[in-house]
Each structure stands twice: as structure tokens, then as C-alpha cells.
């Protein structure tokens, strides 16, 4: 008997903006990701425009818009039972504020979801994955404006109705807690160094998103009682750098800055500590009395989260982050990836237990993976042992967490096929079990090729997590 329950969902996860391309096809409008160039500084000096002569990786990405049928077929070869992707809001409402949806966009996803089902994959759909319509940011100031609640409601109602019976698992906002460190992604707001009172803006946007998420949950349940609607956070844990009580306390405060989001989403009310945050930072939220009723009624059904690494925090450190979480001090006990992300499988067990203790709600590990530089050998093979090791160690810890009593609905490996990196726009930060021949500058044939890890994940799924041995898949030197 496997430790994993029979109905455990093994799958893979991508996001529309990192895979589809076709950025102006089928009536699509521009989203915040469409104006981000390649490089670690892709968020600096943004003018919120597409500039002539600049390469934007999301514009073509891996061309999933045109190739999704073949790609899904290829991924199905591993036996995936679910597939997480997002609906690009701008394919349905190109500017975000229209009253009528774009039929071409709706038809595109209908076909995609049917294809997933044909291959036995349950669609797991994020409603907003770093894809706020650019028009809403420019004209309304993004999520800090309450008007977006209504626009989002309209969008959600449209897709819930259209995909009723096709999609059951939903998530509202991807990594909503990135509102602090990556506000354009996390909260669709353009916060720069010149922004006065950034915390006011961040918490106002967060409040509006909480109301919007709660409304989405209520509408989704009303349209189809079988809908399971989760929230989604980035929850790689934060350790204190030392046992100095100052470090311990601050690391916990920083952790609470993230858990604040799941507290509201899952408990249906603001945590007590928010009063103090507001007072100390002169935050005054623009709210309506019914907002709190919606937040109370529209709690999420499960907690979806991403997990990549852990971070180390020292009191007084400047708080910076990227897509993987907080950027802290170097942890001498852990190895790091080429991108400096510490590899810490035990932290996954730690975090599953932390979240189960705090919420007693089902968890869904909707992102976990490792960005690696892959090398194609002369015989055309790609022996990605590092990726297999990472996968093994994390599945092992997920198994332990289940033994600890955590309810985990499923596991979707981040980027089962190589896609554009959200943090840097690179293609060469590869997560996939399937290689895509494309380089950081956009060159390449876009040919797909299975890596060794493809067979490994297949084996894990086939044995429902029982057989984690990969040595037989690697070449003896
Ligand atoms: C998460 C995002 C994803 C994804 C992943 C890996 O923050 O939800 O969109 O890309 O991190 O990050 P990166 O692509 O920067 O390596």
C-alpha cells in the first residue's frame, strides 16, 4: 500500500503567460507580464509599455498557444492526473473592464480543458497568475482600486459558467503574498521607489483582492457546488539566522507577513495582529461594511502553495525577495541551485505541518521544482540527475508529511515542460521533464525532447509514489 491516498493528484503546473505566447492572437490584450524583458532586473524602470526593439519572452514563450494539443499528449505519457495552468484574463477580457467577453479566448480554453480531460487530466486552474490586464494597471492603478473587484467578479462568473463541468479545481490569485516583494505580480500594482506609503497601497490592494477572491468563491460555489476553490501563496519557510531571540522574533514576524494572506483567505477575517500593523504604518483602508461579510462567507476550500526553498533571516536585514520567496542569508547547511536557491526538502515537511496545524484545511502543493541548466549529450539524451534527486527528496518529505497527518490533495511539479522563468524571463532556467529547444534570446527550434526525469516522474506516478528509485535511469560511468 502506498502512503499516498488513491485519489492523490499527481500533475504538473504552468502559467499561461510563461508558456502560451500568442500574446496578441485571438483578441488577447496585454497583461503585466507582456512588458517585462529578460534578466534579473526585469522589474526595474518599467514604463508599462511595449518598447520597440526590446525582446519580451512572454510574447512567444514556448508557443503553447499553438502546440498545446501535442504538448498535452506528450505530458500525458507520464500519466499526469492533473494539470495546472492559468486562464490569461486578457484572452477573456482584453482590457479587463469590458462587459462582454471575447469568445475566441473562451473557445480556446474550452478546447484546452477538453483536451486535458481526453488525456485523463483534471484541470487545476488559476484565475490570475501574474496576469493582471495592463490596461487596469494604467487606467485604474491596478488592485489598489476597488473597481477591479467588479471586473474580476465579471471575469470569474464568465469562466465559471463557461467551464462548468470541465473544471472543478480553481485558485484565485497566484502567490498573493508576493504583494510585498513583487507587487506587480502579486497584486497587479506598480510600486516604485517613488511611491509614497507603499504599505498603504499594498494593503489596500490586498484588501480588494481578498474581497474579490471571496466573491469568486461564493459565485463559483453557487454556479457549481462541486467547485473546489483554493487560495495560492508562496510559502517557502523562513528560519531565524541564529537562536538570538531578535532573529527568531523577526523571522516569525516576516513569516506572519505571508501567513496574513492565508489567515484572511481561510479563516474569513483579519488576524488580530493586523490592527497593530495598520496603526504603526498609518494605514487606512478604504472598505465597505459588506466587504467583511464577503470575506467571512467566501473562505477558500483548500490552501494551494508553492514551495521551492527555505530562507534565513537575520534581524535588521533589508527584506528582499524574488519568485522563490524571501532572499535571506546563506544557509551553511544547504546546497544551492545555480540561481542561489537553497535546496531544503525537509522544509517541505516542516511547512506542511505548520500549515496543517494552523488551518486544518486540505493542502495542495501546486508548485515545486528546480531550475537547472540542462545539457544535451552527443547521443541526444539529457541526463538530469539533479532534477531527479530534487524530486525524489521532496516526494519523500511529502510522504512523511502525509504520515504526520497532513491532508494533501495533490502535487503539481512546476514546469513539467520548460517554460519562461517568471523571475528572470530566462528559458535556460529549466524546470521541465521535457526540454524545449529555445534560448534566452528567443532563438531555437522549439523542438521538444524528453529528459531522463520524464521516465522517473512516470514511474513515481505509476507506483503512486512508492518507487522513488532513479539509479537505474542514470548511466553508469
Ligand atoms: C513562482 C511562480 C511561477 C514560477 C516559479 C518559479 O513564484 O508562481 O510562475 O515561475 O515561481 O520561479 P522562476 O520562474 O522565477 O524560477
From TrEMBL:
GO terms for biological process: carbohydrate catabolic process. SUPFAM superfamilies: (Trans)glycosidases. The keyword Hydrolase applies. One of its GO terms (cellular component) is cytosol. The keyword Hydrolase applies. Coiled coil: none annotated. It holds the Pfam family Glyco_hydro_1. Signal peptide: none annotated. PROSITE patterns: GLYCOSYL_HYDROL_F1_1 (PS00572), GLYCOSYL_HYDROL_F1_2 (PS00653). Keywords: Glycosidase, Hydrolase. The active site is at residue 367. GO terms for molecular function: beta-glucosidase activity. Belongs to the glycosyl hydrolase 1 family. This is 6-phospho-beta-glucosidase. The lineage of its organism: Bacteria, Bacillati, Bacillota, Bacilli, Lactobacillales.
Amino acid at each position: 500500500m502506498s502512503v499516498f491516498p488513491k485519489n492523490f493528484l499527481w500533475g504538473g503546473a504552468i502559467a499561461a503567460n510563461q508558456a502560451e505566447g500568442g500574446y496578441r492572437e485571438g483578441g488577447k490584450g496585454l497583461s503585466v507580464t507582456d512588458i517585462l524583458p529578460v534578466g534579473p532586473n526585469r522589474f526595474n524602470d518599467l514604463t508599462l509599455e511595449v518598447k520597440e526593439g526590446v525582446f519580451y519572452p512572454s510574447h512567444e514563450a514556448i508557443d503553447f498557444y499553438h502546440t498545446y494539443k501535442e504538448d498535452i499528449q506528450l505530458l500525458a505519457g507520464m500519466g499526469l492526473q492533473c494539470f495546472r495552468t492559468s486562464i490569461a484574463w486578457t484572452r477573456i477580457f482584453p482590457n479587463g473592464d469590458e462587459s462582454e467577453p471575447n469568445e475566441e479566448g473562451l473557445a480556446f480554453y474550452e478546447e484546452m480543458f477538453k483536451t486535458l480531460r481526453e488525456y485523463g487530466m483534471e484541470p487545476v486552474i488559476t484565475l490570475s497568475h501574474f496576469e493582471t490586464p495592463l490596461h487596469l494597471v494604467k487606467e485604474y492603478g491596478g488592485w489598489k482600486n476597488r473597481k477591479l473587484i467588479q471586473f474580476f467578479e465579471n471575469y470569474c462568473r464568465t469562466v465559471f459558467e463557461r467551464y462548468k463541468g470541465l473544471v472543478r479545481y480553481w485558485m484565485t490569485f497566484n502567490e498573493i503574498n508576493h504583494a510585498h516583494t513583487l507587487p506587480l505580480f502579486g497584486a497587479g500594482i506598480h510600486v516604485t521607489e517613488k511611491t509614497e506609503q507603499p504599505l498603504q497601497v499594498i494593503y489596500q490592494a490586498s484588501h480588494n483582492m481578498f474581497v474579490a477572491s471571496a466573491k469568486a468563491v461564493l459565485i463559483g460555489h453557487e454556479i457549481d457546488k462541486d467547485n473546489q476553490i483554493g487560495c495560492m501563496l508562496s510559502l517557502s519557510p523562513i528560519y531565524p539566522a541564529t537562536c538570538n531571540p531578535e532573529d527568531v522574533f523577526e523571522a516569525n514576524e516576516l513569516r506572519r507577513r505571508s501567513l496574513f494572506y492565508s489567515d484572511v483567505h481561510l479563516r474569513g477575517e483579519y488576524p488580530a495582529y493586523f490592527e497593530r500593523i495598520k496603526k504603526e504604518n498609518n494605514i487606512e483602508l478604504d472598505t465597505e461594511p459588506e466587504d467583511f461579510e464577503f470575506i467571512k462567507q467566501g473562505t477558500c476550500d483548500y490552501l494551494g502553495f508553492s514551495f521551492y526553498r527555505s530562507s534565513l533571516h537575520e534581524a535588521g536585514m533589508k527584506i528582499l525577495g524574488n519568485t522563490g520567496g524571501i532572499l535571506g542569508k546563506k544557509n551553511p547547511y544547504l546546497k544551492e541551485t545555480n540561481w542561489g536557491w537553497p535546496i531544503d526538502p525537509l522544509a517541505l515537511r516542516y511547512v506542511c505541518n505548520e500549515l496543517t496545524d494552523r488551518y486544518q484545511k486540505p493542502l495542495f502543493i501546486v508548485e515545486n521544482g528546480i531550475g537547472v541548466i540542462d545539457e544535451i549529450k552527443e547521443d541526444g539524451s539529457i541526463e538530469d540527475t539533479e532534477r531527479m534527486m530534487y524530486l525524489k527528496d521532496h516526494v519523500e518529505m511529502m510522504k512523511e508529511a502525509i504520515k504526520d497527518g497532513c491532508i494533501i490533495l495533490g502535487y503539481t511539479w512546476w514546469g513539467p515542460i520548460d517554460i519562461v522563468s517568471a523571475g528572470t524571463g530566462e528559458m535556460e532556467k529549466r524546470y521541465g521533464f521535457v526540454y524545449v529547444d529555445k534560448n534566452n534570446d528567443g532563438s531555437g527550434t522549439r523542438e521538444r525532447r524528453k529528459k531522463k526525469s520524464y521516465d522517473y516522474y512516470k514511474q513515481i506516478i505509476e507506483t503512486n509514489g512508492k518507487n522513488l528509485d532513479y539509479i537505474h535511469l542514470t548511466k553508469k560511468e
